[in-house]
Amino acid sequence: MAKVIFFLLIVGAGLVFFVVKKDLINVDDLLRIVAFTDDGAAPTESGETSPFPSDDSITRPTFPMDRTLIDNQGRPLEASVLGKSNGSILVKRKFDQKEFVIALTKLSSADQEFFANVADYKPIPSKASLVAGRVARWNTNLSSAQKEATKYGLPIYLVFTGTSWCPPCQQMERSVFNSDTFRKFANENLVLLKVTVPASLRLSGLDAQLSAKFRISSYPTILLLDASGNSFYKESGASVDPVGHTAYIKQRIDQTM
């Protein structure tokens, strides 16, 4: 046992001599390596680590900021302020996460004074804020649907239907398209586009081109398109369950977009 300890001492001494002799690392470098924590952050004077340098010139974002807003009637609102522009602020209400634009003139004098000293900042609009209050209506041509899809960042829900002569189409119109479930879902998630097919099955113009492009042969047929007009989903046949239909359409959208 004594021989083993003696051998280890000799090896250790040799390594120290080798490091110092070759000047592979100096004491300051060694202390600097030891001082850094596992996450690579240098300790502050208090011993805590921070991923940021202590340079005061580093600009840190003002938004979003959590604040209890007071309106000009003295009512409080717990919110996260997302941005400020043109005398208004964009806020996300804490209790339900809904977004609103509030004019600074609607706030208390203290809040108005506070935001007067805050630089304008326009956040990237979230999907929720873009579609807030939107009411989806049926487009009748692809061009207008594409513009709407680009504006809101939503897919196009295209249906080829014959509501004047096709019983399954009429059934889907009543059960699904006229339901509150589908309307609410469309308001937040879809750009609607309808091609009405006559009993003669003879389409003309752009509607005929769309039918040929997507090889429509039965009614109703539903497609999901991106804003460029490319199809990523197609199904034929009527659905009479608005809850099931919207859930399935949402699943297809989530898998693609």
What does this structure look like?
With 257 residues, the protein is α+β, with helices and mostly antiparallel strands. Helix content is 39%, strand content 19%. Helix 7 runs parallel beside helix 9.
SSE order and pairing:
Elements: H1 2-22, H2 27-35, E1 65-70, E2 76-85, E3 88-93, E4 99-103, H3 109-116, H4 127-131, H5 142-152, E5 156-161, H6 167-177, H7 180-189, E6 191-196, H8 205-213, E7 221-225, E8 231-236, H9 242-256
Parallel strand pairs: 5-6
Antiparallel strand pairs: 1-2, 2-3, 3-4, 5-7, 7-8
Helix pairs in contact: 7-9
Write a brief structural summary.
This protein has 257 residues and is an alpha+beta fold.
Terminus-to-terminus distance: 69 Å
Q: Report the CATH C-level class of the largest domain.
A: Alpha Beta
Query: How is the largest sheet built, in terms of strand order?
Result: 1-2-3-4
Count of DSSP strands: 8
Tell me the overall shape.
Answer: elongated
Query: How large a portion of the residues is in β-strands, by DSSP E?
Result: 15-25%
- Which spans of ≥5 residues are poorly predicted at pLDDT below 50? 15-60
Helix content: 25-40%
The computed structural class is: alpha+beta
User: What about the largest sheet?
Assistant: 4 strands, antiparallel
**CATH topology label of the largest domain:** Glutaredoxin
Per CATH, the architecture of the largest domain is 3-Layer(aba) Sandwich
The DSSP helix count reads 9
